[in-house]
Design goal:
Layout lengths: L3 H7 L4 H8 L4 E6 L5 H15 L6 E6 L2 H12 L8 E5 H13 L11 E2 L2 H14 L25 H17 L1 E2 L1 H14 L1 H9 L1 E7 L6 H13 L4 E6 L16 H8 L3 E6 L1 E2 L4 H8 L9 E2 L9 E5 L4 H17 L7 E5 L2 H14 L5 E3 L12 H10 L6 H17 L11 H10 L7 H15 L8 H18 L10 H8 L5 E5 H4 L4 E6 L15 H13 L2 E8 L25
Parallel strand pairs: 1-7, 1-8, 2-3, 2-6, 4-5, 6-7, 9-10, 11-16, 12-14, 12-15, 13-14, 15-16
Helix pairs in contact: 1-3, 2-3, 3-4, 5-8, 6-7, 8-10, 9-10, 12-22, 13-14, 15-16, 16-17
Length: about 600
């Protein structure tokens, strides 16, 4: 007989969702179509397993592709009133830092003196210096392949570029810094070279659930494989959808069940979540045209038979596109559609930004949320981004998240920068210092500097004692200033604009396809479906890429989809771009 908690965990789940939640004996390979309730199922499985072992110290680990996805799972877990002390949810980079590098980095020469994590701004700064040393013009959009294997092999194949990569990594060693990719490589190297450390880590994990497995890269697979082979009692679940693998250009690798079994040395049971609770059947049928997985997706939404709207426009000129989209949005608002249920999507930021600016001018009475248009770019691994979150989020709101981030800041100060802090110094102490530091400054960057300096003064963090920490501080602000000085972005320094960075977003969303993955809206308005854009002119597998981007775009919509292959886009003297080829073969009625 099931207890009340189990009944609550299983409440509202479908039969196939319950099967995934209740199966704690097998390793699972779960294919989940768009809108299948994947996040709900994953959250409930974490809760169910947590309730099975309430006193255990072994961790239940959920690895997500984005911090946003991790926050969503944590928010849902909060509502279930669990003992969350043995639950860990975060990205693979956070996992590698928390479980491997910060605890066992002493076992590897490269990390034995601690670590300083740099972002893409510092990487670009170093590369620019190296290019200048060779007398070569630096292009920030054409980076060499900076990845290196655990054996020290460089992935860059071009001999000229490889010299730059070698110099870049030599520079990082000299400054005792690591970049985003090195977090994974060094974590894997620690596991490979220190079996006792690997055993300790594995023995403290009960299960590992990998969300969006199709976006996992080779290092991640190998890290998980090392843990699985070391302790075969760990229960794994990989859940995702290979048709939504749109991050392959960033290293994502889609592996099938057999390949994952080979990497982990485990057997997996296949399951499917193939009912869509998001979209009408008409929309499901449309995005199914671009599906490569061989299974039927059925709409299980209460409005599955609604006709909704599906329109494909190949006639609107790019110069009139903003006005046409504004007209559609205004009609939707007049019909009672909420701003939060409307999303405007494009394949890249370059063509999206001018449309976003035009829409805000043409619809001044509506609210918009657009991404990557703030002075401080989100970076959840950066100490000062974390501090800025605490500075600009309202006191008394999102209390649990503020405490968690405060703890992370203390941890980074101690472990990454060797700052001496009293064992009695806790998250609430840090929050009190930041909250009590007064300022009437209206410039957001200056306000943030003042708050940080108050914190440093209170903790007696002096530049002479902690030069690396102050260098990271200067790099953080230099990056923000560079964004503010970018005339194309037209960013403000007003303190209220800084506060908007961390507000829970509302309004009409304006986003790239890659950043909208995992979200859903009643209405999707998408443009830029043109050859050389979708698929990108550099694509190695153009048709496959175009299919996946269309699949992800259309499957965000519940009831209405407006697609545009606008006329008039061309590069210099080249002919006008034509509509994405594979849309010709799809009958849109």
């Amino acid at each position: 007989m099931r207890d009340r908690f189990t009944e609550r965990v299983l409440d509202t789940l479908s039969i196939c969702q319950k099967e995934v939640v209740l199966d704690c004996e097998n390793n699972l390979f779960v294919t989940a179509c768009p809108g299948s309730g994947k996040t709900r199922t994953l959250t409930r499985k974490i809760a169910y397993m947590s309730n099975l072992y309430p006193e255990s110290l072994k961790k239940i680990v959920a690895i997500t592709y984005t911090n946003r996805a991790a926050n969503e799972i944590n928010t849902r877990l909060d509502k279930l009133n669990l003992n969350e002390s043995h639950i860990w949810v975060g990205t693979i980079h956070q996992f590698c830092l928390d479980f491997i590098i910060r605890k066992f980095g002493l076992n590897l020469k490269r990390t034995s003196r601690g670590i300083k994590i740099i972002d893409e701004y510092v990487t670009s700064k170093y590369l620019k210096e190296i290019y200048e040393n060779y007398g070569i013009e630096y292009n920030p959009y054409e980076h060499p392949n900076l990845m290196v294997s655990t054996s020290g092999k460089y992935y860059e194949e071009d001999d000229r570029k490889r010299k730059i990569v070698i110099d870049y990594h030599r520079k990082l060693k000299q400054t005792n810094e690591i970049d985003f990719d090195l977090i994974l490589m060094l974590a894997l190297k620690i596991l490979e070279e220190n079996p006792i450390s690997t055993q300790i880590i594995s023995n403290n994990i009960r299960s590992i659930f990998v969300d969006e497995y199709q976006d996992t890269n080779e290092f991640q697979y190998q890290i998980l494989g090392q843990l699985a082979k070391t302790d075969k009692s760990i229960k794994f679940m990989f859940v995702g959808d290979s048709d939504q693998a749109i991050f392959t250009s960033l290293g994502g690798v889609v592996k099938n069940k057999k390949e994952i079994e080979k990497i982990t040395g485990l057997e997996f049971l296949s399951k499917k979540l193939n009912g869509c609770y998001r979209s009408t059947q008409r929309i499901v049928d449309l995005y199914s045209h671009f599906q490569s997985e061989n299974y039927k997706i059925k709409s299980l939404s209460s409005y599955s038979e609604d006709a909704g709207v599906i329109e494909y426009d190949k006639e609107t000129h790019k110069d009139n596109l903003s006005s046409r989209i504004a007209e559609i949005i205004q009609d939707l608002i007049n019909a009672g559609v909420s701003e939060n249920e409307i999303c405007v999507i494009a394949p890249n930021q370059f063509i999206l930004t001018p449309i976003a600016k035009d829409l805000k001018k043409e619809l001044p009475n509506l609210h918009f949320q657009s991404q990557d248009v703030y002075p401080i770019k989100p970076d959840n691994l950066n100490l000062f981004y974390k501090i800025s979150f605490l500075v600009f989020t309202p006191i008394g709101e999102r209390i649990r998240l503020r405490k968690t981030i405060a703890n992370e800041i203390i941890h980074i100060l101690k472990n990454d920068f060797a700052v001496t802090l009293s064992p009695k110094f806790k998250s609430l102490d840090l929050l009190d210092i930041l909250n009590s530091a007064k300022s009437i400054e209206k410039n957001g960057l200056t306000f943030l500097r003042q708050k940080i300096m108050c914190l440093f003064d209170f903790l007696e963090i002096e530049r002479a004692l902690y030069p690396d920490l102050y260098q990271a501080y200067e790099d953080f602000f230099a990056k923000a200033i560079a964004r503010i000085n970018n005339k194309r972005l037209e960013l403000s320094t007003d303190i209220n604009d800084f506060r908007n960075i961390y507000k829970e977003k509302s309004g009409i969303n304006i986003s790239t396809i890659h950043k909208v993955k995992g979200e859903e809206y009643e209405v999707v308005i998408a443009f830029g479906f043109l050859q050389d854009i979708v698929p990108h002119f550099k694509s190695k597998n153009p048709e496959k890429e175009a299919r996946k981007l269309l699949y992800v775009t259309i499957s965000r919509a519940k009831k209405r989809v407006y697609l545009f292959s606008e006329r008039g886009r061309q590069n210099n003297w080249f002919p006008e771009k034509r509509p994405t080829d594979i849309l010709k073969n799809v009958e849109i009625i």
